[in-house]
Amino acid sequence: MPEIRVDPLTGLRGIIAQHRAQRPGGGLAIPQPPPPIDADSDPFAAGHEHRTPPELFAVRPGGGPPDTPGWTVRVVPNLYPALEAGGVEPEPSHAPDLFTAAPARGAHEVVVNAPDPVGSLADLTAGQVAVAMDVWRARMRAHADAAYVHVTVNECAAGGASLPHTHTQLFALDFVPSQIARERERFTAHATRTMGGNLLQDLVQEEVRQRDRLVAVDDEGVLLSPYAAALPYQLLLAPRVPRARFEDDGPVAAALLHDALQRLRRRFGGVVPPLNLWVRTAPRGAEHFCWHIDIVPRLTPLAGLELGTGLHLNIVSPEQAAADLRDSG
């Protein structure tokens, strides 16, 4: 029977309706191997540093000047930024109660996760993923004055990637988006209700006890199929020891993130599905929070229900997804 479930972290409702996968044309998309990256046209390839804006940061184990080869992770401004420093105030509206606008102030950066011409973090070694994640943290710290810093990885065209070479985008915002604000409020309410409890820590402890949606555990993190997963095979990676901000010192569970992507690859016949991945960290001023990483494969389309109501319909139960991914370990 279909169920309405409430996401413990956001309070948003979703529908779990596994039987709908049996309807004609209603199953999962079958991921296809992406075409190889054309090394000559790849602006993120080593040796093509002149094809990007001047770098902001890089890891160069052997040293060397900026904008030259020899790097393992490289950060540049986005060539087509969604956010910019400064900005011109829009013309005042004649109906300010109806139409409001402001400059899109902030920063928009690209982290080239490795010089390897590959399309997924899963194609890197666990050690390379760890180095890339350390750079994510360094750039988040560089924007500590922002109201919120959003770090996201889009893989494949279906996941919104305009360039195939594995990269991460960072958005430093001067406001807290509503979805992050919802989580902050629920963390705060849980701490008040439990006299200091951490919402995600308590959720993880219960998931480990029940084991129905538990996928994997290591020394640094816990990998779950969320109770109210919005899309099939969605995953949540949480730290073993709660910490409000991903960018603060401490483990980042890089090996477990790499393992999660490998499990998805094995589940889908050796192909990593198109996906979106993001880091949820505490917004500025949050007293109660815990960072986590969300991994969302793009295996079903968003249709009128999702786009018109914000109510997601998931045709693979989180319990089934967890069992499948445990078996693919």
Automatic annotation (TrEMBL):
Q: Does the keyword Nucleotidyltransferase apply?
A: yes
Which residue ranges run through the membrane?
none
Source organism, top-level taxon: Bacteria
* UniProtKB keywords: Carbohydrate metabolism, Nucleotidyltransferase, Transferase
Catalytic residues (UniProt): H167
A GO molecular function for this record?
UDP-glucose:hexose-1-phosphate uridylyltransferase activity
Q: Which residues form the Galactose-1-phosphate uridyl transferase N-terminal domain?
A: 75-177
Swiss-Prot/TrEMBL GO biological process terms? galactose metabolic process
Which residue stretches belong to region Disordered?
21-50
Name of this protein: DUF4921 family protein
Which species?
Baekduia soli
Tell me the classification of the organism that encodes this protein: Bacteria, Bacillati, Actinomycetota, Thermoleophilia, Solirubrobacterales
